[in-house]
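Q: Given only this backbone (112 positions), what sequence would you predict?
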């Protein structure tokens, strides 16, 4: 019945699969999450309206987007870990410098 309505009238057909509320804002994905949400919604709408070939194209697009996001996330994670290690080294060096300065102050106070 639904396909007959879509063929005889120019009405918009609802997605065949219900679309969940976007979670990109909760997950911190920003614009990438928004793009993924739109692609998913359009993908579900296309599945309801078009043949399986277009669904496969959308699937490949989403897979490519997800792979790209995962690669970017891995790079960001690596960069954050590297920055954290570097910051730890800087803190250790500063603490050693503070200890050295405190020792010098104590030595100067003893000389007085």
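A: Predicted residues:
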């Amino acid at each position: 019945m639904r396909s007959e309505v879509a063929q005889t009238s120019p009405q918009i057909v609802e997605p065949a699969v219900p679309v969940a509320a976007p979670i990109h804002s909760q997950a911190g994905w920003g614009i990438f999450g928004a793009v993924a949400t739109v692609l998913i919604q359009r993908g579900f709408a296309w599945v309801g309206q078009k043949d399986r070939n277009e669904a496969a194209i959308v699937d490949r697009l989403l897979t490519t987007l997800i792979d790209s996001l995962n690669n970017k996330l891995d790079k960001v994670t690596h960069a954050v870990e590297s920055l954290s290690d570097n910051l730890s080294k800087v803190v250790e060096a500063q603490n050693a410098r503070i200890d050295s300065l405190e020792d010098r102050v104590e030595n100067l106070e003893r000389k007085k």
